[in-house]
Amino acid sequence: MFTVRRLGITGALARTLTNTNCIESMISIARRTTGRVTRWKDGSMKKRWIAAGMLEAERSFRRVRGFKNMDKLVEALHRRLSPVSDTAPEYDQ
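Now predict its structure.
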């Protein structure tokens, strides 16, 4: 949430990405799905059931509000992640 603000994203996209409701909803649905299991065999079984819960939650996902400004987010991420170099490219080793 703080990263979105630090990147300078505003508007509907910022409101969507700084909100945790969608994550909490997915966790709740996954918890409800895995709550039906009474005996866990091993870790891989638990992973399969959690994945099944997430696929169940996927049905209730909505379009990201402000998705038309996603290019601004990508640009901001590229600016933030690409290192700024003071040396000319021909001197890079």
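The mean pLDDT is 83.
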